[in-house]
Structure formats: C-alpha cells, structure tokens
Design goal:
10 Kd Chaperonin, Protein Cpn10, Chain O; mainly beta; 6 strands
C-alpha cells in the first residue's frame, strides 16, 4: 500500500464486526455495531508538538465517531489523528 499519513495522523484497519452474539444468535447487518478496535496500518511522522506513540501493527481502541472512513483498493480503513486513539491493547 502506498498511503502515508501526514503529520500526526494514523491509518487503521477496523476489526470485523461481530457476526454472532455470545449466546449464538446471528446478528443481522442492520443491527451490527461499528467496531471500536483495529490494527494500525500506517503512521505519520508526527509534529514538533506531537510525538507518535503508536506504531504499525499495534491493536488500538478508538472512539465511536473517531476518524474518517476511506476505501483503498476495496478495503475499508479509518484515518484519524493520534489523539483520537484511546488505548493500545
């Protein structure tokens, strides 16, 4: 992939949405919740004020409405600022 985020932005591939509940019920597409975790695919260089703390390959948690959804080569990603990431897991 040739995407390089600028400044303090991070490119994340969201984890797939849950297909089934813990009790075994299948969740229809209309009721699936947006995943709140994903894998870091690319990281920008940071800025003079912001040091990048995440790195490629990290699993992260982010806010429900964080980031901008984009599609690259048919794969969906989120691009967001590092401060929208809540935690590294």
């Amino acid at each position: 992939m040739n995407v390089k985020p600028l400044s303090d932005r991070v490119l994340i591939q969201p984890n797939p949405a849950e297909e089934m509940t813990a009790g075994g019920l299948i969740i229809p597409d209309t009721a699936k919740e947006k995943p709140l975790a994903g894998k870091v695919v690319a990281v920008g260089p940071g800025t003079s004020e912001v040091k990048m703390e995440v790195k490629v390959g990290d699993q992260v948690l982010y806010g429900k409405y964080a980031g901008q959804e984009i599609s690259i080569d048919g794969v969906d990603y989120l691009i967001m600022k590092q401060n929208d990431i809540l935690a590294i897991i």
